[in-house]
Design brief:
Layout: E1 15-19, H1 24-35, E2 39-44, E3 55-58, H2 64-78, E4 83-86, H3 103-131, E5 134-139, H4 153-173, E6 178-185, H5 191-204, H6 208-218, H7 230-241, E7 252-255
Helix pairs in contact: 1-7, 2-3, 3-4, 5-6
Protein name: Short-chain dehydrogenase
Family: Belongs to the short-chain dehydrogenases/reductases (SDR) family.
Keywords: Oxidoreductase
């Protein structure tokens, strides 16, 4: 049967959960999906600082009980979801290489950037397979393919593991009506990124502009000459969850202004 959905990015009638959806990339994704017609639920540890039109549920997804409670509440109140955007995550560990990282650092980074997504996937997949035409998006990072030992070792490893998990899950669910895709942003203008630059500048006792230049130099720079806007990442996610991308699953999409110096 021929498919005629290639230009259809309308999400009317769909329900989405965006974790870490109160600021930065998560907020931009939530706003984008809602503008396309989706009913959007957002989750984070703390409520949005500004008024939001999205349904908010507080949850710390590094806590297994809170993750299960979030899923139960959504399944009971909304009858499940069609789109799960696993956006929660971040770089929380110190730089300095292997000797600066304790077991606790590694465990915390894996909980935040890998296990939180695995937990929610496990909670929602049974309902999503029953609904069919569902999509899971894992927000990763180009750091997964370009680890910097002195800056983001544990974070990069956790995101690399997320990429491998996402690929395997996509293969498992491909025949069950659930697509699984990974989006890997590069440097993006978000509050966590701004704080990271400010902290690095303070540690090096240099201006923030110089800190940013040093950080980008370590990764080879950004050919497009600027960081991404959160809304640009959101636009990619919108396309991937839409009917227009109905034949896409298992792929990793870097959105980095050409920063990764590799072919694939």
């Amino acid at each position: 049967m021929a498919h005629t959905t290639k230009l259809n990015t309308d999400l009317t009638g769909k329900t989405a959960l965006v974790t870490g959806g109160t600021k930065g990339i998560g907020k931009a994704i939530a706003d984008e999906l809602a503008a396309a017609g989706a009913r959007v639920i957002i989750s984070a540890r703390n409520a949005p600082s500004a008024e939001s039109t999205h349904h908010f549920i507080a949850a710390d997804l590094t806590n297994a009980q809170q993750a299960s409670s979030l899923a139960r509440q959504i399944n009971d109140e909304f009858g499940g979801i069609d789109m799960l955007i696993n956006n929660v995550g971040g770089l929380t560990t110190p730089g300095g290489g292997y000797s600066a990282l304790t077991d606790k650092h590694w465990e915390d980074e894996l909980q935040l950037n890998l296990i939180a997504a695995i937990r929610l996937d496990r909670e929602f997949i049974p309902v999503m397979t029953a609904r069919r035409n569902a999509v899971i998006i894992h927000i990763s990072s180009i750091a997964a393919r370009q680890a910097l030992w002195n800056l983001n070792l544990a974070y990069a490893v956790s995101k690399s593991a997320l990429n491998s998990y996402s690929k395997a899950l996509a293969t498992e669910l491909a025949s069950k009506g659930v697509r699984v895709l990974t989006v890997s942003p590069g440097a993006t203008k978000t509050p966590p990124m701004e704080k990271f630059i400010a902290d690095y500048a303070a540690a090096q006792n240099i201006p923030e502009e110089s800190a940013l230049a040093q950080l980008l130099q370590q990764t080879g720079g950004i050919p497009m000459g600027r960081m991404a806007e959160p809304e640009e990442v959101a636009s990619l996610v919108h396309y991937l969850v839409s009917p227009a991308a109905s034949y896409l699953t298992g792929s990793i999409y870097a959105i980095d202004g050409g920063a990764l110096p590799v072919v694939s």
